[in-house]
Amino acid sequence: MKAHQALTLARFPHQARYGARAGEPNPLYLDAGYARDAVVGPCLEGLGAKTGVLLFQFPQQPPAELGSPEAFAERLHGFLSALPRGGRYAVELRTRTLFTDAYVAALVAVGALHCLNVHPAMPGVLAQRALLNRSKEPTWVVRWMLHPGFDYERARKRYAPFDRLVDEDPTTRSSLARICLEGSKAGKQVYVIINNKAEGSAPLSAFALAAALVTAAKT
């Protein structure tokens, strides 16, 4: 499950879909009360033990809007600390400068997860993987989102109608297989979410990753 961007945008982008709010500060940014009442509470009530992980994805936005990396980590810690107990929470970043020791410490302090993501705006997935050594959570979350060198619009035009693997990424596939095996051997529950824009077709990428897992398990 992914929380909507009302909680993770500091300021509404200058895009037509935001109408009169475009360019304005977002009053619901990291509002724990709103998250509890409108997102987490209904989610836990409706799905209970089947909820899985609830993800807060912070889209790319100017770092100045979020404050210093330390200030962001402190505010994130306060937000996560105020959420209902019993939920499993993960955070995904799309701003490289926020990926700091302070951010890691904030997650560890509240038992939240860093969502490993394959995205050009972030360090490589194996570099992010080092964070998991500090997590005692029973769950790992990975999102394979975008092929290197592409933005979403360019990838969409190149890959539609998403029925074949156009740009295979064996390096990423191998890294994800390794992460999955490491997690499995450590008794972790590993979620891998794949976007059509990773290689051209999410279902076919999933089949290829499964084959890579079988191969890696034999070596």
CATH homology superfamily name: Protein of unknown function UPF0759
Instruction: Indicate the structural class.
Output: alpha/beta
What is the number of E strands? 6
Q: How many domains comprise the coordinates?
A: 1
What overall form do the CA principal axes indicate?
Answer: globular
* Distinct helical segment count: 8
CATH hierarchy, class: Alpha Beta
- Low-confidence parts, pLDDT < 50 over ≥5 residues? none
Question: Termini distance?
Answer: 34 Å
Architecture, according to CATH? Answer: Alpha-Beta Barrel
Give the DSSP E fraction (strand runs of 2 or more residues): 5-15%
Characterise this structure.
It is built from eight helices and six strands. The protein has 219 residues and is an alpha/beta fold. The chain has a single domain, classed as Protein of unknown function UPF0759 (TIM Barrel, Alpha-Beta Barrel). The strands form two sheets. The protein has a three-stranded parallel beta sheet with strand order 1-2-3, with helices on one face. Strands 4-5-6 form a three-stranded parallel beta sheet. Helix 3 (69-81) runs parallel beside helix 4 (101-110). The radius of gyration is 18 Å and the shape is globular. The model has no long low-confidence stretch (mean pLDDT 91).
